[in-house]
Amino acid sequence: MLDDAKTLVAYLKKSDERGDINFAEDWKLTTLLIGGNDLCNYCKKKHVCRSTVIYTDTICPQKSYSAKKYTRNIMQALDLLQKEVPRMLVQVVAMSNIPPLLKIQTGPTCAMLQAYLCPCGLDTRTAKQMRAVHQQYYQALKRLIEDSGRYDTKKDFTVVLQPFMADQTAPKDKNGKYDPSYFSVDCFHPDRKLHQIMASALWNNMACDHGAHYDNPNASCIFSILLQL
Question: Which superkingdom does the taxonomy of this entry point to (predicted)?
Answer without folding.
Answer: Eukaryota
